[in-house]
Design brief:
alpha/beta; Nucleotidyltransferase, domain 5; Hexokinase, domain 1; six-stranded mixed β-sheet; five-stranded mixed β-sheet; 13 helices; 37% helix; globular
Length: 322
């Protein structure tokens, strides 16, 4: 029996799943999940010490593999997350007794989650024809939360999967028309940016900025979310921006296996992707409207999906090691 600690360390919250895996068979089985505030921890080590301040399903020394999915670009044993005030250094885990660990981008974990049980209850925004399991087509994952995450999942040809991380949320966001360009300039000046990127537009913070621009009300993302039923322009604009971001990423990676929408913004406020403007914008393409209209578009409502994806990635590594 293997034991896997699978963590999803986000800019706001961190989730830790304790999993067990039969040697060489099946999917990892979740034993329990622990949720902690990322912001309250002063360092990566402090976060782990907070986790094991109470007895858990197994201690660090009994863990066969610890997988840490982090909201930022991974460079070997290091990750410097843009929305966390401290560095994640994998070398730190040995001080707590872990024998083996690995870092992965948080949206790589979201991509692996597409092949786990965690996303079986996803909500279909558009039913499509693609079948990833049969055709091995690329699947795109995009999700608005603290940032705008992206990842693609491809089959490796021998029964496993490869996640292709991305920092596309930091690429320039395209605006269309005078009204949108005026909003882009408003955001650029507010944040002192050289150019507007997806992280400034299709995120919780972006929702607040959009609402302020359209209504003059300066509110937190949670306060805006509570007012969405009375804010049709905010909903329509944000849905259009989200649909555009999803379409562009699908075309960038040619995701013929479809796209999963994940992240807390849509999970907590599904109206932002269920509004007709989302699919209208997603399908809009001079050359590929038919392709886009035939792809499955699924909304992941399981906010623990990243933990399951990290565990599946860990299981793949353990099986390869034998």
């Amino acid at each position: 029996m293997y034991r896997i600690l699978a963590a999803d360390i986000g800019g706001t919250n961190s989730r830790f799943g304790f999993f067990e895996l039969e040697h060489g068979a099946g999917d990892p089985r979740l034993q329990n999940i622990v949720r902690l505030s990322t912001a309250q921890a002063s360092s990566f080590t402090d976060l782990l010490q907070r986790l094991f301040a109470e007895p858990r399903h197994f201690p660090p020394a009994a863990c066969d593999l610890a997988i840490f999915a982090v909201a930022g670009p991974v460079q070997g044993h290091l990750c410097r997350p843009p929305n966390i005030k401290w560095v994640v250094d994998l070398h730190e885990i040995t001080t707590l007794g872990f024998k083996r660990g690995s870092l992965m981008n948080d949206f790589a974990a979201q991509a692996f989650a597409c092949r786990s049980h965690a996303l079986r209850e996803s909500l279909a925004l558009q039913r499509g024809r693609a079948d990833f399991q049969v055709h091995g087509a690329t699947v795109a994952v995009i999700g608005a939360g603290t940032g705008l995450g992206h990842c693609a999942l491809v089959a490796d040809g021998v029964g496993d999967f490869i996640a292709v991380p991305s920092e596309a949320g930091h690429a320039a966001f395209p605006f269309v028309g005078d009204d949108e360009c005026a909003y882009g300039e408003y955001v650029r000046r507010m944040l002192h940016l050289d150019y507007c990127h997806g992280d400034a537009i299709v995120t919780g913070g972006g929702l607040s900025r959009l609402h302020a621009h359209l209504t003059g009300e300066s509110l937190s993302p949670a306060e805006v979310a509570a007012r969405l039923p009375q804010s049709p322009r905010t909903v329509e604009w944000f849905a259009r921006f989200y649909g555009r971001a999803a379409r562009n990423y699908v075309l960038n990676v040619l995701a013929q296996g479809g796209v999963y929408i994940t992240g807390g913004v849509a999970a907590k406020n599904p109206v932002l992707v269920q509004h007709p403007a989302f699919l209208q914008e997603f399908r809009r393409s001079p050359a590929h409207a038919a392709l886009l209209s035939g792809l499955p578009v699924l909304l992941n409502t399981n906010q623990d999906a990243g933990v399951h994806g990290a565990a599946l990635f860990g299981a793949q590594r353990l099986r390869r090691r034998g």
